[in-house]
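cron nightly-structures :: item 1 of 1
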Amino acid sequence: MKCKQVRVRLSAYDAGELSATESQMIERHLSGCVDCSAALGAYRGVREQFALLERISVDTDIADETVARIRAEGVRLENAGAPGTSLPRWVRRLLRRRR
């Protein structure tokens, strides 16, 4: 796999959403690529920082509009059918909770 292919899949890889074959290919690439390994580390660092943020209440209209836009983008990506372009599983779970 090339760096560009790996980087678009890092979120899905880290969330365990890829097939065993894809995960192995990414792991093989990461073992020999300092740049992509650093990108994965940076991604994980950002995700950890987000987890530390204080939850705030949001105006319902804004929240509903945001969820609607994310759902529309998810439909667009799924209709595109390109590998690695679906919404991450955590986003899909979040959207299901908002129904």
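cron nightly-structures :: done
The two ends are 38 Å apart (CA to CA).
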